[in-house]
Amino acid sequence: MSSQTHLAFASTAVGITSVIQVPTPSPGPGEVMVKVAFSAVVPSDTYVTDYGRNTNGEYPVLLGLNLSGVVEAVGSGVGGLQTGDKVCGFATTGSRGKGLQERAIMQSSTCAKLPDDYSLEAAATIPDNFITAFYTLFDCLELTLPTFPVSVPPPHAETPILVYGAGATSGQYAVQLLALAGYRRVIATASPRHHSYLKSLGAAHVIDYSADDMLEKILLAAGKKLQFVLDCIGAESTLKSICNVVSSDGVVAMLLPVKEGTRHVAGKDAQMWMELPVDRNLFPDSVKLVGVRTRLYQQNEYLRDNLMPKILPRLLEEGIIQPNRVRLFDQGSLQDRCQDALDVVRNGQVNGEKVVVKVASD
């Protein structure tokens, strides 16, 4: 084990977080060490810290699914990355790759090389939502895998596709990817503050999800009930609405966990499910419900080998994929920055932006 250590932000018990010293390992085969510049805080981080979710009672648990930074060391068998490369990455398993630490050991397949002039701050918003959107659309919903640039329209180019909650950071990537892949009838629901931006990303119709006649407007835009729906909120209330506009043979992909009630971020007493309980399922049996677990995307060998190492770098190099808006926490100590970011996320004070923490001390 390495005698070197570095700082990391971790949950050390239910309800308790702290900056701690952790060992700095060397990258193994197929891995790279990244000096972390920025990381994002997402709702799942609050579920770990506040409720001990997915900890199995074992602490400390490091936090941060996304990171951006510079490659400092490369393990054997790694192709396409070298020391000095700017990258963004997604932590699929274990604490070694989590973003809220000064050094992270990443599987090279979960890293994307960035253009030399790309903002590391902006890059920290990309991995989890980009992967979620791509995996959901082209694996879970089984839309045709695109190759960019798209020269031939896909089979469902003129089929209406609903992105419910498109103002969410994952929804913004879904709208972009659908438009880039040649889908011309993307219907998005979002708060009015996001409408013009979503149209600029490629949505054909944007509907206020708080409007009393939202369901009627969705059906009017689609011309019929919908065959494909992506629920970016994953709450009981959103699924109840979708139930009224999806066709009897449609497919609904819902981002997990499903939250009880209406909130995007589950509160202390709210239930969360990784599979929708039978007594909460309002859909007919003929509708295919798919729960999206982004961490499983590497089970698709094509996505494992191409999505981060090849597809995302090309889209970034060509400037045709837009990062999320950043809400940056860069003041005070690392403890202060991380804690303030967690507070904003757990209190639901985020809207169409990614909460990003500056990790690097220099």
UniProtKB/TrEMBL annotation:
<dbReference type="InterPro" id="IPR047122">
    <property type="entry name" value="Trans-enoyl_RdTase-like"/>
</dbReference>
<dbReference type="InterPro" id="IPR011032">
    <property type="entry name" value="GroES-like_sf"/>
</dbReference>
<dbReference type="Pfam" id="PF00107">
    <property type="entry name" value="ADH_zinc_N"/>
</dbReference>
<dbReference type="InterPro" id="IPR013154">
    <property type="entry name" value="ADH-like_N"/>
</dbReference>
<dbReference type="GO" id="GO:0016651">
    <property type="term" value="F:oxidoreductase activity, acting on NAD(P)H"/>
</dbReference>
<dbReference type="InterPro" id="IPR036291">
    <property type="entry name" value="NAD(P)-bd_dom_sf"/>
</dbReference>
<protein>
    <submittedName>
        <fullName>Chaperonin 10-like protein</fullName>
    </submittedName>
</protein>
<dbReference type="Pfam" id="PF08240">
    <property type="entry name" value="ADH_N"/>
</dbReference>
<dbReference type="InterPro" id="IPR020843">
    <property type="entry name" value="ER"/>
</dbReference>
<dbReference type="InterPro" id="IPR013149">
    <property type="entry name" value="ADH-like_C"/>
</dbReference>
<feature type="domain" description="Enoyl reductase (ER)">
    <location>
        <begin position="15"/>
        <end position="357"/>
    </location>
</feature>
